[in-house]
Design a protein that fits this description.
Elements: E1 4-5, E2 10-11, E3 17-18, E4 27-28, H1 37-50, H2 64-76, H3 87-92
Antiparallel strand pairs: 1-2, 3-4
Length: about 100
């Protein structure tokens, strides 16, 4: 079971459900390497930006623009297009 707080966001364990950056995202955040969810999101945003999928701020927030970029990437790479940071997407991005 994940432990969740709102500010700063802390998720303990491999998966958790949380509100991040005030965007009321209530879905899974796959974490790895003892990183907090916001750092995982920063890494995902950087990877998506490098690939041309994301052009927003690198802010660690799983907002609408980040979720749209995730969905587009997931569709293009044959992944489940959830717009969520999941293990398959993190692996496909080469982050783990």
């Amino acid at each position: 079971m994940a432990t969740v707080t709102r500010m700063p966001c802390v998720v303990t364990g491999m998966k958790g459900t949380t509100t991040i950056g005030g965007n009321n995202y209530d879905g899974p955040i796959y974490t790895y390497g003892n990183l907090l969810p916001d750092q995982v999101i920063v890494n995902v945003q950087n990877a998506l930006k490098a690939l041309g999928y994301y052009s927003g701020d690198i802010n660690g927030s799983l907002g609408v623009d980040t979720r749209q970029a995730l969905t587009a990437y997931q569709q293009d790479y044959g992944l489940d297009a959830t717009g969520a940071v999941d293990e398959a997407t993190v692996r496909a991005l080469g982050l783990i």
